[in-house]
Each structure stands twice: as C-alpha cells, then as structure tokens.
Amino acid sequence: MTTASEGAELTQVGPGTPMGRLMRHYWLPALLSSELERDGPPLRLMLLGEKLVAFRDSAGRVGVMDHRCPHRCASLFLGRNEQGGLRCVYHGWKYDVAGNCIDMPSVPEHQDFKHKVKARAFRAVERAGLVWVFMGDGEPPPLPGFEVLDLPPDEINVSLIQRDCNWLQALEGEIDTSHFGFLHGGHVDPRDVPEDDPFYYTITNRAPQYHIADAPWGTQYAGYRAAGPGKTYWRFANFLFPCWSQAPNGEFDSHMHARGWVPLDDGHTMFVFIWWKKARSAQALPQPRFKDGRPVGGTGRGGIRMLPNTTDWLGRWRMAMNEGNDWGIDREAQRRNAIYSGIDGIHLQDQAITESMGPVTDFGWEHLAPSDQMITRTRRRLLRAARALRDKGERPPGADDPGAYRAARSGYFVGPDEQTPWQEVYARTLAAAVHPQDA
Ligand code: FES
Ligand SMILES: [Fe+2]
User: Fold this and answer.
1) Does the Cβ of 91 fall within 6 Å of ligand 1?
2) Average per-residue pLDDT in the chain?
3) Which of 38, 59, 303, 386 reaches 20 to 30 Å from 240, CA-CA?
C-alpha cells in the first residue's frame, strides 16, 4: 500500500519537492512548435507548477521563462515580442531568449545595470514538432533516446490533450492493464468477436496473469494469456522515467511511440503522444468489429472533440467532454450494454476514469490487488529514485543515459508459450522487430 505521505512525495511536482526535483533532471515536452509564431504573442505555459511564458523571437529561437519580469514582477505575458526579444510593457525592459536583459530604457544611461539583470529562463530545444524544456540547474542531459524520436520528422505524429488530474494518476491508467476487459470491453461477448482480432484475447480472459520487473528505463510488464496449443498472446508495456508510458495498444513489430504524462501542476497533466505514422498500431487501425461486421460500441479511437485553446494557464488542448458534462455518459447505452461505461471512445473512457478520482488520488482510500503489481512496483521505483536524489544526490535513471530508453518497446503479439522465460521472449521479439532508423 501507499501511505498518504508517500502519496504527497509521488504527486507533488513544485520546486523543492522530491518528485519536482526528480522531474527537473529531464527534458519535458511542453508545447507544439506550431503554437509559437515568430514575433507572435507570448504564450502562457504552466509546467511543474511554475507559471512560465514561451515565445519565438525574430530569428525563430524559442524562449521559455518565468512569466514575472525581474524588474517589478509584471507578467511578461503582456509583453511585446519584437526584434529579438520580449519587452515588458510596464517599463520597457527587454529580454532575449536566454533571459538576458538587453534593454533598460526607463533608467538613465549612466545608471543602466542591464548586464546584471537576468530573467529566469530555461533551456528549450525543438524536436519531433515539439518544444522541449529543461527546468533543472546545470548542463541539460541529452533528450531521451526513444526509438520514435530518431525517425524522420515527417514520419512522426504528435498530439496533445490536457487531463484534469495528477500526472501519476493519469500515467497509472496506462499501466493498469486489467481494466481493459471491463472499462473498454466489458460489454463484449468474446464469442461475437473474430478470433484473430487482438481485442478477442483481451476479453476472453479478463483476469490475465503478469510478469513484472524493473528495467533500465523504469519498469516493464508482460500480460499473457493462452492463445491455442503451444502459443501465448503477449502484451508488453513500459513505464519510463520520469513520466512516460508505452502502451500495448499496437502490433509490437512496428509500434514505435512514447506517451508522456507531463505535469502542468499537481492537478493537471498534458498527455503528449508521439507515434510513428507507419506503425500498424491500434491508433491507425479501425475500431474492433463483431463477426457480423458491426463496430464494437465505445471502442473508437478518433473523433475527439476539443475546446478552442484559450490564453489561460491551463487553457490549452482541453477536451470538450469533462466532469462538467459527465464526460457525455449515455446511461441508455450503459443499460443496453452497447457500451460498458456508456462513455464513447477509448481515450475518453480513460480520461473520465482518471479524472473521476479527483485532482489528486487519496492513496489512503485504495485497496490495491495482486493485479495492481505494476502500479505498486512503479510507485516504489519512483519513490526510491526521488529519495536517492534527495538524500544522496544520486541522479535518477535515464537522466544522463538516453541509451537506457533504446530497448523499450511495447505492443502485442502471439508468440511462444508461457514456458519460455518472458524476458527472453521480449528480447527475441524486439531483435526481430522493425527498426527503420537502424537501417
Ligand atoms: S516590471 Fe517589467 S519593466 Fe518594470
Ligand atoms: Fe484504458
């Protein structure tokens, strides 16, 4: 079990908190490159509980800094983005993307001290259509070595969706694999689904067994179910430091992706999904169908309705369905068993469930089961790393070693039976999988 004080250690990400310090050892994807226009208006950005502004200067460089002007703390969100920097509209001081004060027009020339003033700016780089921000001290590490980040940019898709709950709660929805046969497929009788559909296996045995272990990148599990004589249906998935998951929702062979659960503050998270367009992933596949050709209700993956972005601190990439409209729950569809939850769409179902727990789960309420071992192991691994950093200054896993992420992949496949050691099954299947960037 997780105590309330461990819960606080795990979920709080502000400056000076154990998990906040851990998170500040990694690059975090914060916004789409396309959200920032050259000399365009600065954008409000909440990240790790800090209020920031982001802008793109005349040369195309990205600046990310505390929103408070170092003079008298007016918000630089109101600033003028002009000729190589952001100018505060209060007294006209101007800052470049590195935070240097480059103009101090409100002070007589002989008293000018602009070379002594610096806005609190953070490093920013662009990769895969995203702006990545490093909020720690000292030299930033390399970007995480996900396979998908090495693919040509035009083969990568990225999407952002905000979630109104703590980052860990959102992430744990991803590694809570035993919910699949209920939340997403509880209304489906396996006899009605073609036996070669991956969906079939996840609902034939709704209480699958797991192997779980620590991995160089975090933690890994393999869910497995018998799939005919001498064969097993395997589902591998990963947690990766500090806030990433790789879900088993695609064919392992080509399922290159990464799913970030980036903390905006303790109660809000930005889901950042990066995936290979050519993968035979569930993302690209049509929704599961019954043998008679009808689509299985509630299992759609597209069609997510978004609200227009606003300039609020938390106004970006919000879904139209939220707690305020009960996530669009259709009680009639629930009653008729057309959709188990009555909520339409896989992503929305996950979003609704994790948001329904409240902004930050009260861990004291939980009764974790043996089927939640991936969750408990991941919490322990995170706590160990955050405490080792706090108490001994030990740098957390993967922070200095992008290669630690290289051998992480998730997905499903039918393979050798469960007598074969699971990590051997993994290594063998990974070696035989598609690796276009190594070609
Ligand atoms: S507060 Fe920004 S220039 Fe004075
Ligand atoms: Fe789910």
Assistant:
1) yes
2) 94
3) 303
| Closest C-alpha residue for ligand 1 atom 1 | 72
Amino acid at site 356? S
Nearest ligand for residue 76 CA: 1
Q: Specify the ligand 1 atom closest to the Cα of 92.
A: 3
Q: What is the pLDDT of residue 389?
A: 98
Question: Are 156 and 275 within 8 A, CB to CB?
Answer: yes
From the CA of 106, give the closest atom in ligand 1: 3
Q: What is the pLDDT of residue 439?
A: 62
Angle between helices 346-356 and 167-175 (to 10 degrees): 130
Element of type H or E holding 20: helix 18-23
Tokens 């395997």 belong to residue:
234
Ligand 1 atom closest to Cα of residue 91: 3
Q: Which of 163, 365, 192, 370 is nearest to 268 (CA)?
A: 163
Ligand 2 centroid distance, CA of 180 (Å): 6
Pocket probe mutation, ligand 1, options 53, 66, 68, 69, max atoms within 8 Å of Cβ? 69
| Spatial separation of the C-alpha atoms in residues 250 and 233, rounded to whole Å | 13
* Model confidence pLDDT, tens digit, residues 184-229: 999 999 999 988 787 888 888 788 889 999 999 999 999 998 888 8
Q: What does each C-alpha distance from 84 to 38, 67, 76, 102, 424 come to in angstroms?
A: 10, 17, 15, 10, 54
Q: What is the pLDDT of residues 345-354, one digit of tens each?
A: 999 999 999 9
pLDDT at 209: 85
d(CA 309, CA 41) in angstroms, rounded, equals 14
| 102 burial level (CB within 10 Å; 0-12, 13-18, 19+) | middle
DSSP code, position 309: P
* pLDDT tens, position by position, 15-59: 999 999 999 999 999 999 999 999 999 999 999 999 999 999 999
- Does residue 69 have its Cβ closer than 6 Å to ligand 1? yes
Query: What DSSP string describes 242-260?
Result: TTEEE-S-BBGGG--EEEE
